[in-house]
Structure to design on (203 residues):
C-alpha cells in the first residue's frame, strides 16, 4: 500500500484558531481518524472565521478524509475549495486527481496530476498515479514514461515496476513485462499480483 499521501497540517498551522478558543477543532482537523477529522475540519469551516491559509488546510484535510472513506464527490468538492484558497497546493491537486480517477474522470485526473507534478516534481507518487490514469485512458506510452520517471527517482519502488509491466504487457512486450513483474516481486517478495501476472504469461 502506498503511503497516506496528504501531509496533514501541523498544529502550528492552526495557531490563530487556537487563539480564538478553537483548540479542539484544530486538533481534530489534523487527527488521523477520518471521522474525527471530518468533524473537526467541518467545525473550522462552518465557523467561517479562519484565515485563508487555515481554510485551505481545513478543506484539504477534510477532502483527504472524504477520499479515504470513498466519498469521492465530496472529496472533489472540498479539494476544489482548498485550491481556491491555496492554488499552489500540490497535495490538493494530487488527491483531487486520485478522486477523479476513482470516479472514472480520467482526463480530469490527468489534468490534476499534471498540475501537481508541475508544483512538486519531486513527489514520486504523482508519477505513479498519473501513469495509472494514462494507462486506463489508453495512453500506454505516456504511462510508461511516467513509470520510467518514477523508477529513475525511486529505483526500489515495487509498484513502479509492476504497473510498468502492465503497460508493457498491453503493448505486447511480454518479455519486458515479465522482467518488470519479476523485479516487482524481487523488491516485494510474496506480491500476489506480480505472481499472478507472471503465471498468466507462462513464467
Amino acid at each position: 500500500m502506498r503511503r497516506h499521501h496528504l501531509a496533514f497540517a501541523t498544529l502550528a498551522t492552526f495557531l490563530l484558531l487556537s487563539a480564538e478558543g478553537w483548540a479542539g477543532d484544530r486538533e481534530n482537523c489534523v487527527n488521523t481518524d477520518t471521522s474525527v477529522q471530518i468533524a473537526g475540519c467541518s467545525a473550522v469551516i462552518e465557523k467561517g472565521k479562519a484565515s485563508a491559509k487555515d481554510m485551505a488546510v481545513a478543506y484539504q484535510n477534510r477532502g483527504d478524509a472524504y477520499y479515504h472513506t470513498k466519498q469521492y464527490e465530496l472529496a472533489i468538492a472540498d479539494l476544489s475549495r482548498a485550491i481556491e484558497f491555496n492554488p499552489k497546493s500540490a497535495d490538493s491537486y494530487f488527491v483531487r486527481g486520485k478522486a477523479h480517477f476513482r470516479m472514472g474522470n480520467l482526463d480530469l485526473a490527468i489534468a490534476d496530476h499534471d498540475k501537481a507534478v508541475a508544483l512538486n516534481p519531486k513527489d514520486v507518487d504523482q508519477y505513479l498515479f498519473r501513469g495509472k490514469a494514462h494507462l486506463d485512458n489508453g495512453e500506454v506510452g505516456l504511462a510508461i514514461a511516467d513509470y520510467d520517471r518514477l523508477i529513475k527517482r525511486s529505483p526500489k519502488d515495487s509498484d513502479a515496476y509492476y504497473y510498468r509491466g502492465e503497460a508493457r504487457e498491453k503493448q505486447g512486450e511480454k518479455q519486458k513485462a515479465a522482467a518488470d513483474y519479476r523485479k516487482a516481486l524481487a523488491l516485494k517478495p510474496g506480491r500476489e499480483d506480480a505472481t499472478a501476472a507472471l503465471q498468466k504469461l507462462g513464467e
